[in-house]
Write a structure and sequence with these properties.
InterPro entries: Isochorismatase-like_dom, Isochorismatase-like_hydrls, Isochorismatase-like_sf. The chain is of the alpha/beta class. The protein is 33% helix and 23% strand. Strands 3, 4, 9, 10, 11, 12 and 13 form a 7-stranded parallel beta sheet that branches. The chain binds tricarbonodiimidic diamide.
């Protein structure tokens, strides 16, 4: 047994490397680089870019420790048939599917939809294409985790209050224990970042644990 524990709040989280996976949420050019969906919505992407280096360090530690690594991408079919009409128009404007400097926004196969080079998947790491905010909705993520006997998830990525916590809340309902390293998740809104992290660990870890990159790296070493 390789049972160990992550230093975390509100208390330490025991884990086994064999049953732990790293889930990297939507670290796509459309959210993290200028001129993508994030910026089209009126956000400053520099606020989420601070998570890139800590994510890279955790990704490298997870690979070295032999963890299952899963990446997700939010996006849609080129004909947008999988995009709900209510999602197509935000703030009265149409962004998804429209042409931007990195191709059609949030459309699969376009440059902006791709994962950022700093965190690019390597062979053997599943990439989950998801049409929604949560990584389980209309995807085979649960099946992939279940087939590998995964019990614990380290969840990183963007944005903290949207796709990260939607995924963590549902993962908790599905029986997974979720650890969120605070410096490995990013938000365009500092106040949402703070509140989202507090919500996860409140009430005795109501739907997860919060830690940081250095604690995760130390526990995986
Ligand atoms: N807008 C925003 O904060 N996030 C998203 O639209 N998607 C993800 O969080 N990936």
């Amino acid at each position: 047994m390789s049972q160990s524990a992550f230093i975390a709040e509100p208390f330490a989280l025991p884990f086994d490397k064999k049953t732990t996976a790293l889930v990297m949420i939507d670290m796509q050019r459309d959210f993290v680089e200028p001129a993508g969906f994030g910026e089209a919505l009126g956000n400053d992407v520099s606020l989420v870019r601070v998570a890139i280096q800590p994510c890279k360090q955790v990704l490298e530690a997870a690979r070295k420790a032999g963890l299952l690594v899963v990446h997700t991408r939010e996006g849609h079919r080129p004909d947008l048939t999988d995009c709900p009409p209510a999602k197509l128009t935000r703030g009265g404007k149409t962004f998804i599917g429209s042409k931007g400097p990195m191709g059609r926004i949030l459309v699969r196969g376009e440059a902006g939809h791709d994962l950022i080079p700093e965190l690019y998947p390597i062979a053997g790491e599943p990439v989950i294409d998801k049409p929604g905010k949560g990584a389980f909705y209309q995807t085979d993520l649960h099946l992939i985790l279940q087939n590998r006997g995964i019990k614990t998830l380290i969840v990183c990525g963007v944005t903290t209050e949207v796709c990260v916590t939607t995924t963590v809340r549902e993962a908790n309902d599905r029986g997974f224990e979720c650890l969120v390293p605070a410096d490995c998740v990013g938000s365009y809104f500092p106040e949402f970042q703070k509140a989202s992290l507090e919500m996860i660990k409140a009430q005795g870890a109501i739907f997860g644990w919060v830690s940081n990159a250095s604690n995760v790296i130390a526990a995986l070493a």
